[in-house]
Amino acid sequence: MKNILPTPLQYKKNSLTFDGIALDKIAKKHSTPFYLYSKKTLDLYYKTFFKAAVTHEIPSPLVCYAVKANSNSEVLGHLNKLGSGADVVSIGELKKALKAGIDPQKIVFSGVAKTASEILFALKCSKRGIYSFNVESIEELELINQIALKEKRIARVAFRLNPQVNAKTHKHISTGNKTHKFGLLKSDIIEALAVPSFWTHTTLVGLSIHIGSQLTDLKATVSAIKELSTLALGIDIPLEFLDVGGGLGIDYTQAERAKLASIDTYMKTVSEALHKYYYSKTEHTPRIVFEPGRILVGKMGVLVSSVVRTKTSDNCHFTIIDAGMNDLIRPALYEAHHDVLPATKSAKLIITDIVGPICETSDCFGTKRKLPSLKAGELVVIDNAGAYGHTMASHYNERKIANEIFL
Ligand code: LLP
């Protein structure tokens, strides 16, 4: 289904605007490359996501925004104002979420490598600690129990189930199969529940799944919810929540636009699966936790860059820009597509590769793209860069991390 929510970019009389303001005007005040974010769009995506959960009768939905997608303080602050919680995977993310005012009782902590000091901090960050440690191994559960014992506290934990499904997405970001490092197999969870020494200072409050990112097809999501439900029904512990993870994709390409599930379709699918496999079989109504990242922030951001120069090698044409793979690594890492748009449209187009300054051939934002013949200093915009852009940036080649500008 088509994703019909508006996005910040629009051409007006051949000039690119962002939230109605001419890009040239915005770029005059900032040096390129920089990330540009639209609060309006963030607001719209969060509200649409939450509203869809309510519309589709998801019990007491809690959105725990996946901070890894974009950890900008204003993004976190705004999401906090809208009522969002956070899904964090490090002490750094946890501290940022707390600083933005997010209630620890709305924070879940995922990740396979939580260290003793991270666990201690999360346990002590409020009277009740965080909402849940989403546990990914028995060894982690034992450590949490030991730390909680020392601190004379009870840690709230959820098991992340590895539902053994194959989410159709890039292999680097598919996480729901037993060959992946994430989560625990059902049999291991059941075994762990029967070991009293793991539970002296921990209490099981939920179960979670997260099967992958940039999901366009929801079949694996339904299968995973079925597995989650079967486990929840089987363990006979009154759970406070079921966490269905994140993963809903956005449309980076026309092809994805055609096949992508909308927020509404996603929510309807999740709700139907939960009702069919879980709620219809029990009186119990745990709340549902979501961990969306990309769907909330992907569309609100772009990377603005200037052309440094152009170059030709025989019949190859390169538009060399001042943003590189250190600013946005997705094309280099996942061969991900991002549209590259000129600030000024022209009817006359050439075929060109858009490349950055980094000394790797993978530092390329697109090959054989149709763009106007651009001159040094002209602006281009790399679209859909709000998620996993700035958070994955690096200093490679001793480059500065691009600034983030919030409109
Ligand atoms: N929950 C957990 C436990 C996760 O590991 C992730 C993402 C999310 C939620 C949020 O997933 P989302 O709704 O954003 O798909 N760097 C990659 C994406 C990596 C996703 C990692 N985990 C990319 O640029 O495509």
The small-molecule ligands in this entry are: ligand LLP
How many helix segments?
A: 12
- Structural class label: alpha/beta
Q: Give the low-pLDDT segments.
A: none
Strand residues, percent: 15-25%
Mean pLDDT: 96
Q: Superfamily at the CATH H level of the largest domain?
A: Alanine racemase
What's the number of structural domains? 2
CATH architecture of the largest domain: Alpha-Beta Barrel
- Largest β sheet strand count, sense and barrel closure: 8 strands, mixed
Number of strand elements: 19
- Spatial gap, N to C terminus: 29 Å
Q: What is the overall silhouette?
A: elongated
Can you offer a commentary on this structure?
- With 407 residues, the chain is α/β, with parallel strands linked by helices.
- It has two domains: 9-37 and 300-406, Beta Barrel (Lyase, Ornithine Decarboxylase, Chain A, domain 1); 39-294, Alanine racemase (TIM Barrel).
- It has helices at 23-28, 39-55, 73-81, 91-99, 116-124, 138-151, 186-193, 219-234, 254-259, 263-277, 294-297, 330-334, and strands at residues 9-12, 15-18, 21-22, 34-37, 62-66, 85-88, 107-109, 132-135, 155-160, 202-208, 241-243, 287-290, 301-313, 316-321, 340-342, 350-355, 364-371, 379-382, 403-406.
- The strands form three sheets. Strands 4, 13, 14, 15, 16, 17, 18 and 19 form an eight-stranded mixed sheet that branches.
- Helix 3 (73-81) links the parallel strand 5 (62-66) and strand 6 (85-88).
